[in-house]
Amino acid sequence: MLIEPVALSDFFLSFFSAALIILLATVYAALYAWSKISGHRKFEFAAWLIYAALLICVGVFSYVNHFNDYWLLLSLLMVLGYGWMPRFIWKLCAATHDADTHHSHQSGDHHD
Amino acid sequence: MTEQSPPRWASETFWKKTAIWVTGGSFVLLVILSFDSMKQISAGGPRVPAYSVINKDISYRFDKAKQRYQPTIGEDAPLFGKTLSEEEAEKLVDHGKKTVQAKNCMNCHTLLGNGAYYAPDLTKAWLDQGWGAKESREQMMVNFLLDPEKNARTYGSNRKMPNLDITPPEAEAIVAFLKWMSSIDTNGFPHNFIALGEEDK
Amino acid sequence: MTLQAYQKKAANCWAGCKQRHTELMANPHLSGGQKLAVHYFTVAMVLFMAQLLFGLLAGLQFIFPSFLYEILDFNVNRMVHINAMVVWMLYGFLGSVYWFLEEESGVEIVGLKWGQLAFWILTGAVTVVVLVYLLIQIGSGTDTSLWLINEGREYIEAPRWADIGIVVVVLTFFYNVAATFAKGKWSGIAGVLTLDLVALAGLYLAGMFYVTNISIDQYWWWWVIHLWVEATWEVLVGCIMAWSLMKLLGVRRKVVQTWLYIEVALMFGSGILGLGHHYFWIGTPEYWFTIGGFFSALEPIPLVAMVVHSIYDAGAHRFKNSNHPALAWIIAHAFGNFLGAGVWGFMHTLPQINLYTHGTQWSASHGHLAFFGAYATINIAFFYLAAQQARGKVWMGGELANGWRWKTAAVLLNLGVMGMTVALLIAGYEQSFIERAVEGSTWAGYFAAQNHPWFMQAMVWRMVFGLMTAAGGGLLFWDLLEIGKGEQRPAAVIDSEAVAQ
């Protein structure tokens, strides 16, 4: 058997932790981005706190969904992917817009 | 206008190439998997039995090795008392499938779990305990399809199937289609389903 | 009212439509392509109203099963409900592309006459299909029924003759787009858009044949449904958004196009093989569990990327916006897409839980919010952009005359859809629990779940929120017809540097 279905008593936990994974991953991404924008350390701290909660949710989700052998790779993928992705996207934003802001500052021509 | 160009990994060309490779790669993989899937789900293949399976007794049991429910094919049990050749069986199931489409069954029922949610799933309808006993099942199904209002099975919900002007040959064909569909290996869906005749096993 | 009174009313209505059409064709603010786009948008809104109406009828039948029994049965109402949805989305997309085609390519549309003809043919065909759905409904179990009445495959029920018509119309549309870009400027957006249209049309062919084997049937059927909704439509919307961002917010082309490519990589990278999550239970091999599960977990990544990017933009720029309704709907899109596709999707997508949620109201809950959040919202936003231009690039920001109307419509629609989604979620939760897990999906189990108080109450609440949605929809239609009329203030001018290459 490639999968072991969620137990009846764990339905709620499965739905709830799955929803929280996506929600927390987004809140984490938002807080991380916000800490970069505002420069406040407290947002970065909050982002890490949320990330810790995300780890717990992935743990609960993996447990109630009976992840074993290669399915555990999915847990790893979520932990690393949702953690690293916002940072990568941020870098990508900065890099792609760099020429943009540079250009407008130089010419003093704000296109917004 | 002078521009600072972004690093290579953030450049337009890099992402253009990435987009093309990712899309192309995913699509090629999908095509390869589709070839394999087609081989496995062709009628008469390992997962979808040949249409002449309607000549046999079909059931649904928990498979200990696979840890899930699995269709089982048993002794001879010809539908409507007639043993059909492979071609005859295919023709009958085909007529049934066509009728199921022309009568728009899928916009109330689900088939293999896909469709609308106003009426019960038909994946294992042939095996449902609601038909009472194996001996009377075929006739009950035909009667129901011919006059669903009179033979309504609403389980107290008041939701009745409308009369869809199904003819007797169409009704028999639908039953054949449903019998054949119940023999498809659906990876254990639905779970925990106790088929007719499996109550005390 | 007497018959004559009705006739008079109909004649007045017809005269009004003709009057509006004459005004539209004489509108000096719109190009040829944009006038055609307004045609598409108008029919899209009419179909949206049809979607709401037939949704309400189908929803009522859950509460009162004898309502319209054997007159307009659930399967008919539900079919019109979902078909109207698919078609109005497509009308919105086609219109949006016609809208920006000339500005993006820098030349007039090549073969506009054919495009206009295709619009009338398509609209005529849609009308005939709907009338046949409503008046003839079903046929006998023969090929003739599938060719002329209804193919009986969810979402793509349109009879085969109409399928062929749709392909011809899409090819005409493709010709307009490709030939116009070929004659004018060929940009990155043009490239992505053209290839995406090829995929969109090609995939439709996967849904145009009949097979006896239902596993094979559903295998290809999902190619159309999934690869449209979770891949090619998303990229099409990406192109529309990319152009809008450049045009409205003055974001530079290079940045927009880079991000369009990033989006294509993320969406196709997760979406194409994400198709696997539909192949768990239809007879297909077990390896789809793994493929479907893994790629489904990747599908929220583009959504996370959008959140980061929008915060980056909000920090880096201070955008002035002179179209508040459009902006509000883009924000609704961001939240709706994230919740509907992301959160609601991931909650029930893995096979470990999907074994119980497959084919229950869970799918209905997810479907309502995801289609609304991902596509309806973006179409509505574009309709407001079009309305602004059509009224002569007028101000549509703060202190707008009758601003209550668009705001109320937006609140009613968003709250309504969210409310329906939550009600259906409760119904789906109960159904997966009682019917699927406890009762093992027998017919008795199905009805035990349908008769459960949680389910019955959820259906009542769905109706309440459905009425709210319908009220919002009606108000939206009215607002789109009226907004900006008599407005004298011009819209803020956006730096047009972005639009130049």
UniProtKB/TrEMBL annotation, chain A:
Top-rank lineage group of the source organism: Bacteria
Keywords, sorted A to Z: Membrane, Transmembrane, Transmembrane helix
Spans through the membrane: 12-33, 45-64, 70-90
Protein's UniProt keywords contain Transmembrane helix: yes
Record-given protein name: Uncharacterized protein
Native organism: Methylomonas fluvii
From TrEMBL, chain B:
PROSITE patterns, sorted: CYTC
Pfam family, one: Cytochrom_C
Keyword field contains Metal-binding: yes
Transmembrane segment boundaries: 20-38
Record keywords, A-Z: Heme, Iron, Membrane, Metal-binding, Transmembrane, Transmembrane helix
Domain Cytochrome c: 91-182
Keyword Oxidoreductase among UniProt keywords: no
Protein name, per record: Cytochrome c
UniProtKB/TrEMBL annotation, chain C:
Gene3D superfamilies on file: Cytochrome c oxidase-like, subunit I domain
Transmembrane residue ranges: 37-60, 80-101, 117-138, 158-177, 189-211, 223-246, 258-281, 287-314, 326-347, 367-387, 408-429, 459-481
DNA-binding recorded as keyword: no
InterPro entries per record: Cyt_c_oxase-like_su1_sf, Cyt_C_Oxase_1
Pfam family for this entry, one: COX1
Keywords noted in UniProt: Membrane, Transmembrane, Transmembrane helix
Residue ranges that the Swiss-Prot or TrEMBL entry lists as coiled coil: none
PANTHER family for the chain: CYTOCHROME C OXIDASE SUBUNIT 1, NITRIC OXIDE REDUCTASE SUBUNIT B
Name of the molecule in the record: Cbb3-type cytochrome c oxidase subunit I
Organism field: Methylomonas fluvii
